[in-house]
Fold these 3 entries.
Entry 1:
Amino acid sequence: SIGLSLGGETLPIEDISRPEEGEVGPTRVYLSQQTFLTVADRSDVRLRIGDATTQLPDQMRTEMRQIFEKVV
């Protein structure tokens, strides 16, 4: 399972797209604009994949902000 949290509260995920059974490829996580910005702006957001939990790297969050600025 995949999840995002901030301060113990779950952040909404719009959709998750995984490779077909037996295929290899990326898992895509789709977020609302508000959640995307929250993840980009807050270093204390946690990403959970199965039993593992981690913070998103600063570089990734910086790139997310740059993407948002270009798109919006």
Entry 2:
Amino acid sequence: PKVMLINGNAGSGGDAFPWGFKTLKMGPIIGERTLGILVGPATGHQLIDGGGITVPDARLYGPDGKWFAEGYGVTPDIEIWDDPAQLAKGVDPQLIRAVDEVKKLMR
């Protein structure tokens, strides 16, 4: 059995991996929605004022032909807040729920 933990600090590959995990129905995803910043590799360009800009030159599509929901991210199947106060006490609510879900899947 497999579960995946995600949160709002995950983007890029942290968006791609859970997106694939969910698309392929590999198991429940637990946590908080990811950032939604997965448009593909970007090329950098210098601006005349010394600044710069990056322009993505690819998109990722799933097996269903739909592209990744840029700007939204991956929504967990089971939403559990990554509570900093609990984490500071050594309690990880997301991990606890993930272990419970694995136990259910093993029955």
Entry 3:
Amino acid sequence: MTKQRFGMVLPISLLAYFLILMDNSIIFTSATEIGQSLNLSSPTLSWVSNAYTLTFGGFLLLSSRLSDLLGRKRIFLIGLTIFGLSSLLIGLSGSATLVIALRAIQGLGSSIIAPTTLALMMDNYQGQMRERVIAYYGVTAGIGASLGLLIGGGLTTLFSWEGGFLINVPLTALLFCLTIRFVPNKAGLKTKIDYIGAILSVIGLAALIGGLTSNQWLLILLAVIVLACFIGFESRQKQPMLPLVLFHN
């Protein structure tokens, strides 16, 4: 691996992570404008955020596993494409139903980008350099949330709430081109996808997040049951989606 390619993985990963953090912060600053523009009631407006949260949390574990199986670069490009296209369509849409549906798709894209950025850094940096990039990753989390509030407020004031989503389009396009050019293409693991584990993890995590955000105890109970089944099923797999050694202590 050349020094140039090694050096570009960090800014690509941090910019992608910053992008999804900034997007979440923008929602908070533009929520009122979105509600007024689309004539949404407060319960319906909450789904602009909830739809994203459900798919982001529900698919996070599966997305992380897919990056192991399909290769970091390939799955990262897929995530960028989903995130960028959904952001574009949200910005161009004037339909409340479509915006909520596209926010769910955007959450799926983010669930791919978030774990893959960290995985890319873990794959490409070792020793003290790895410790430094993890520190940069943590700093990016704080900066992304703070700047997102400022950028979101500025775009909403100067343009409209749609601008907060449309700004993602050129940034994801830039990241897509940089990834193709500079991120090394490493083969994924040669093993099959655990479809049953994938379905259980998505249902369990989505039910848990949905239950916590809406105070629905039946959903929380469903999540506990499904996630217990998931852990039990994965404990019998040679290559589980989730390292069960995490639960030993």
